[in-house]
Amino acid sequence: MTTPEPTREPETPPAAPPSGEQSGKQSVPKVRPAVAAAGRKVAEGGRTAMGAARRPQGRLIAGGLFVTAIVTAVVLVAVWLAPSGGVPTAQESSASAGPTSAAPSSTGEASFSPTPTTSSSPLPPNSGLTEWADKLAVKVEIPPVALRAYAYAEYVLTNRKPACNLHWTTIAAIGKIETNHGRVGASTLGPDGRVLPPIVGPALDGKAGRAKVTDTDAGALDNDRAWDHSVGPLQFLPAAWRTFAVDADGDGIVDPNDIDDAALATATKLCEANKDLSQAANWNAAIKTFPDLSAKVQQVFDAANTYGQKSRT
Questions:
Q1: Which of 3, 70, 99, 162 could hold 155 in an S-S bridge, CB 3.0 to 4.6 Å?
Q2: Is the Cβ–Cβ distance between 311 and 10 less than 8 Å?
């Protein structure tokens, strides 16, 4: 199987950026000439980058670049409006908002959405992706809250490890194959990103073809002191969760059943080796680091490719 490559065909960026980061402000000050000039350059660069988002039908990049333009514009506004604006890293609880489209930026361009600032706000770091996610959610059939989490995770990793070339479509594909984005069985994904009831996979007791993994967390995540279970919408094993867990939404809780935390942890795991995921061999190897997906690599690819196609129609 092959992985998607960047394509080149122009796409018109949206006229205005998302407004999630401007809440709580009484008025919008005029933009300084320098910022306006920077905005024009960003817009030109965005149009050029977007030209790379459409060639081979179904490539995993289209959506990413589209979001990149949105995010870049929002970042300019945030820098002007926030007194102490800063872009936190993926290690920080207030990481910045998400990536671009289904299989975003394989061209090396950073993509995405609003960059959160260090100023306190009742809104989550990925709130700037709300408008983008709400519009795209219907096309790709992914809950908006999950779509924001996937795109935000791409954004953070694009800043931390740009050479990885991770696109949100891959994270979304894993979410689809694992739990249909937190909607498996009786579980549902709430507006806050938490899955209730929590998703706990079958015991890894070596039966029925399952792996055999004795308990490693004293039942803390899966309520089983004999065997481990995969947990959450992206199905982390307890040991893996201890390694990659992160508070992506800045709520002070690290929870594998929170789609925001789980998505960023997944992105971090996929890019752990910091290899270029636009290369088929590297992409396949990254997917196989998730034990229960090692036999489902083609399914993950097909889902990611489908999201790439749908996000561009």
A1: 99
A2: no
